[in-house]
Amino acid sequence: MNSPDNPILQIAVPTPLRRYFDYLPPERFPVETLRPGVRFRVPFQQRELIGIFVGVSHQSDFPLHKLKRAIECLDAEPVLTPDLLKLCRWAADYYHYPVGEVMLSALPVWLRQGKSTEVSLKKIEKNISATSSAPLELNAEQQAAFAAIQASQNNFKVILLDGVTGSGKTEIYLQTIARVLERGEQVMVLVPEIGLTPQTIQRFRERFSVPVVSLHSGVTEKQRFQAWLAAKTGVAKIVIGTRSAVFTPFVKLGLIVIDEEHDLSFKQQDGFRYHARDIAIMRAHSNSIPIVLGSATPSLETLHNVQQGRYESLKLLKRAGGAELPQFHLLDVRHMPLENGLSAPLMNEVRKQLESGNQVMLFLNRRGFSPVMMCETCGWMAQCKRCDIRMTYHYGAARLCCHHCGSQRNVAIRCEGCGATDLQAIGQGTERIEKALSLHFPNYSIARIDRDTTRRKGSMDDLLARIQSGEHQILIGTQMLAKGHHFPNVTLVAIVDADGGFFSADFRALERMGQLLLQVAGRAGRKEKLGKVLIQTRHADHPLLLQLLKENYQTFSDSLLSERKQAELPPYVFFALFRAEAHKAEHATHFLQQIKNQISEKNINVTGPIAAPMPRRAGKHRVQLLLRSERRSNLQQLLKRLLLCVEGIPEKHRVRWSLDVDPLEIF
């Protein structure tokens, strides 16, 4: 209805509804002073919520007397800057997620709770390194890459810095950032894991005499807000954070760096399922600035964009400082006796390196003692009662744990199938490897790094410091050890089981296996010490594994891209995945079937509804519906229409459902 004399506030409220809400302004409020991006406290049903003001309208679909009045405006200045409002609108539209939820998720929890933006930044202003360390001399490859990035300043360009592990990508970041800071601009650096943040911050603070702040889940909400505000006011010149830091406001953003751009951690896997790398690229485009994607093992999507000419690729084929790449050796264990998953040649090499005064690293991407507890009499295996998955045995805690729903129970004394007492722990986890090595090498100290040993705040930093000091000689860990850590005294990396990627139903498994192998291998042999990588496998003749190790990641990824193209899989087609879960499988199936019934487009391929690869998780039955299209625009148009139809499906209240655009996991 028209309301020419009564301005109506349009406010984004964090609700599942995909629209703005109309409110009357507070009594005698000067609407003409409002700017989009400020917070309002508003009534919503029987509660009060914090929303974001996006504009003024003079008409509404509702009668004026039925509109509620906003309670109060919380800000004099916008908390969401114009570029972030634009970015949030794009993200809400592309990922088909409620715009109010997107806008509020872009803010620190401190602001989502309605707290004041007034806070002291004196601590951050004082937290500067007294002196800056000198830059390192760049080799010819590094210098060429540095010059190419400099040529892109003040223009949008996506640059892939494709460098082998140890090639000095970070030094290129640092010298590029120095030029950005000289122009009075700010920098955003995204890293995949919290564990990488402290060491990255330390290196940046040692180099630059400017405020450097961090944004990740390991800091308190007040610290997170202070860092956010320091960036927004221009006090902080460099922001280093994990994926949510992509929504940090800046006064003058001049460069974005995404380190380890291939990492799965950049994709949010629940709620607002965005990819921080892709959001960052859109932000760089909107701000007309370059963005650097760094990786030794780039994602196939990024490599495809390079092939299409959308991204520029800068290669670093040599390690910095004259260090040699590690030597790879395959250990075919098909006919070898194994003790706790470890072969005699591997153990002999571990002993040799330790006796030479070096450190060794053993990698197994499976925590716990054993992934299976089995009865040798009847074959019964301990299953999670809430998930369709086997429980992992944890020796130290003497518990069976589900790594998917978190449920735990005591280790069974008798088999639940036949009552026998002959229960055996089958298979290896990091805890079992640690126990085996402690028996063989009692005079050496072992550091195990996985989620179980790093739960306590600061424990990861403490372990890394002890490794760097040489206190621990044997390192055992999951993928937490694979990402970006610098261990100059590690001369041997042993991959205990390289075969997981060969058996997965996920078409991305081989890509991830190759990335993980090379990332882990990259921890071996830095500076003057030559590194060796031993890989235990029962598929030593697998052509892709041989190609990865004997040629390089480029030829390996080219082969995978060729397979993806023939199979019509991403990045050559585009996916969207509807998921539904319910206490009864038929409710989830029927809900997705009604969505499928609305699809008549010939250019959309539909698979499902079918049970998810893990059909039951945390007591809920899980079903999914996969849509794919050769054109992104066709898929996006269909999704907009389908989401309108979902509002009219009665069964939606019986299920918990979600939509994942560009899914990276179907598990």
Describe the structure.
The protein has 667 residues and is α/β, with parallel strands linked by helices. 29% of the residues lie in helices and 23% in strands. The strands form 6 sheets. The protein has a 7-stranded parallel beta sheet, sandwiched between helices. α1 packs across α9 (276-287) and α15 runs antiparallel to α16.
Hey, roughly how much beta strand do the residues contain?
Answer: 15-25%
How would a crystallographer describe the biggest sheet? 7 strands, parallel
Question: Count of DSSP E strands?
Answer: 27
Class from secondary-structure proportions: alpha/beta
Going across the biggest sheet, name each strand in turn: 8-9-7-10-11-6-12
Helix content, binned percent: 25-40%
The chain-level mean pLDDT equals: 92
The low-confidence parts are none
- C-alpha end-to-end distance: 47 Å
Radius of gyration: 27 Å
Shape: globular
Lay out the secondary structure.
Blueprint: E1 8-12, E2 21-23, E3 39-44, E4 47-57, E5 72-73, H1 82-95, H2 99-105, H3 109-112, H4 122-126, H5 140-150, E6 157-163, H6 169-182, E7 186-190, H7 197-207, E8 212-215, H8 221-232, E9 238-241, E10 253-259, H9 276-287, E11 290-295, H10 300-307, E12 312-316, E13 327-332, H11 344-355, E14 359-363, E15 372-375, E16 392-394, E17 399-401, E18 408-410, E19 423-426, H12 430-440, E20 446-449, H13 459-468, E21 474-477, E22 490-495, H14 509-521, E23 532-537, H15 543-550, H16 553-567, E24 574-582, H17 585-596, E25 605-617, E26 620-629, H18 632-646, E27 656-661
Parallel strand pairs: 6-11, 6-12, 7-9, 7-10, 8-9, 10-11, 13-23, 14-21, 14-22, 20-21, 22-23
Antiparallel strand pairs: 1-2, 1-4, 3-4, 3-5, 15-19, 16-17, 17-18, 24-26, 24-27, 25-26
Helix pairs in contact: 1-9, 5-6, 14-16, 15-16
